């Protein structure tokens, strides 16, 4: 490394996360140069790491209705599952092979999910239009909406 140190200086060796006493064979593998610079000028933060590994998707229009400062997280989680249509409905439980009555708990006349999806979409459309912002009325209505979903689900 003496020649490399003389040629490139200490910063080159430091950026490669090596030592000035290192031997040349530590950076050669099968007679090929394989010295990867381990340090960079860019600051690595949790945010930059998260941005690199997360799956980037289009922004959804309902996120502000669900995720807000005063949201109760367990209720928001159930709300998120409801929005994604991933709650364990009676219909879904019956598909898993368990003996479950698929009639709607409220009307007792239709299959639980088939007609309720339209009603749920209407509620979400209303919430997206009417519950914008961070005002007191909007915040209270969001809390009430997700509390209702949460307790209906229990």
3D architecture notes:
This is Reverse transcriptase zinc-binding domain-containing protein. InterPro entries: RVT-Znf. With 154 residues, the protein is mostly helical. It has two domains: 2-53, no CATH class; 63-153, no CATH class. The chain has eight helices and two strands. The chain has helices at 2-8, 10-15, 46-53, 63-66, 73-83, 90-95, 112-130, 136-153; strands at 28-29, 32-33. Strands 1-2 form a two-stranded antiparallel ribbon. The longest helix is centred in the C-terminal third of the chain and has 19 residues, at 112-130. The chain is elongated. The protein starts with a helix and ends with a helix. 5% of the residues are buried.
- The radius of gyration is 28 Å
- What is the β-strand count? 2
What string gives the helices and strands in order? HHEEHHHHHH
Approximately what portion of the residues adopt beta-strand conformation?
under 5%
Uncertain stretches: none
The end-to-end distance, rounded to whole angstroms, is: 67 Å
Output the number of helix runs. 8
Strand order in space, largest sheet = 1-2
Q: Tell me the domain tally.
A: 2
Pfam families: zf-RVT
Protein name: Reverse transcriptase zinc-binding domain-containing protein
Domain Reverse transcriptase zinc-binding: 46-109
InterPro entries: RVT-Znf (IPR026960)
